[in-house]
Design goal:
heme; 12 helices; two-stranded antiparallel ribbon; disulfide bond; peroxidase; globular; secreted; mainly alpha; heme binding
Length: about 300
């Protein structure tokens, strides 16, 4: 009950304006901005429902490096290896969708809507399309002027709860918010290379071990499997029920249900989808405001892949 009270309280007090960010920031400068983003994301979602997981991952990997400044979108050049070149970002995808949205927005409102806001809005919209909660996000972010491979340090699939907690704490996020955001693994897939070392783990359901062993048997390539083996493409709280049943695919996922630091909240979320959704709204909105650039800081890129000249 303590966890329930805390989560409900956070939901009602979380603000809708953050410094120079505000809901409806483009109301005058680009009135159709959010509609344009939503329409393009909807078209992509209609033919590829996995885009929700891709955008959630992109959003997280962007915000946890230099803050939510779209530095993850920058292509490497001869003189600079960007964040994209980091091993942790090797399977991040969806960049072409951001390009498509940016192109449409540049036609409608040149040099107005930032790439950082595009990532945030596209992620928000895709979550709702996948069955997740609908929520408002403040906009007004500006794009960063730096993207370096050396800045990338992210918690990985083999992290312990304590190690992952340290990474989240460094970005101003609590343990409860970490458990909440990892619930986004209710959609998406993982490559065998991220969990092959768990195929003899006694903390994995034997039936799942056998299934994953068959999937990962091919010697060529790096096959994938769903992180949520039940409601694979639906954004819901089923992930937490799965890890309680020892059906977590990634080590960090399973540890959430086993570690006393996180197991109680896992049980709360597994038993109450509404509480999970409210907590997710708070956590994803807070994450989207990590070290944002506003006002005259940063830039509004014309092309999300390159810095303005």
């Amino acid at each position: 009950m303590k966890y329930l009270t805390i989560i409900l309280t956070l939901f009602f007090v979380f603000p809708f304006a953050f410094g120079d960010l505000r809901v409806g920031f483009y109301g005058s400068s680009c009135p159709r901005a959010e509609e344009i983003v939503r329409q393009i994301v909807q078209r992509r979602f209609n033919r590829d429902r996995s885009i929700t997981a891709a955008l959630l991952r992109m959003h997280f990997h962007d915000c946890f490096v230099r803050g939510c400044d779209a530095s993850i979108l920058i292509d490497s050049t001869r003189g600079n290896q960007s964040e994209k070149a980091a091993g942790a970002n090797g399977t991040v995808r969806g960049f072409e969708l951001i390009d498509e949205i940016k192109k449409a927005l540049e036609i409608a409102c040149p040099s107005t809507v930032s790439c950082a806001d595009i990532i945030t809005l596209a992620t928000r919209d895709s979550v709702a399309m996948a069955g997740g909660p609908r929520y408002d996000v403040a906009t007004g972010r500006r794009d960063g002027l730096v993207s370096r491979i050396s800045d990338v340090s992210l918690p990985g699939p083999r992290s312990t709860v304590s190690a992952a907690q340290q990474a989240f704490a460094a970005n101003g996020m609590s343990l409860d918010e970490m458990v909440t955001l990892l619930g986004a693994h209710t959609i998406g897939v993982a490559h065998c290379s991220f969990f092959r070392d768990r195929l003899n783990d006694p903390n994995m359901d034997p039936g799942l071990r056998a299934k994953l062993g068959r999937i990962c048997r091919p010697k060529k390539g790096d096959p994938t499997t769903f992180l949520d083996q039940n409601t694979t493409m639906v954004f819901d709280n089923e992930f937490y029920n799965q890890i309680i049943l020892k059906r977590g695919v990634l080590f960090i996922d399973q540890q959430l249900a086993l570690d006393p630091l996180s197991s109680k909240l896992v049980s709360v979320f597994a038993g109450n989808s509404a509480v999970f959704e409210r907590s997710f709204i708070n956590a994803i909105v807070k994450m989207g405001n990590i070290r944002v650039l506003v006002g005259t800081d940063g830039d509004i890129r014309k092309n999300c892949r390159v810095f303005n000249k």
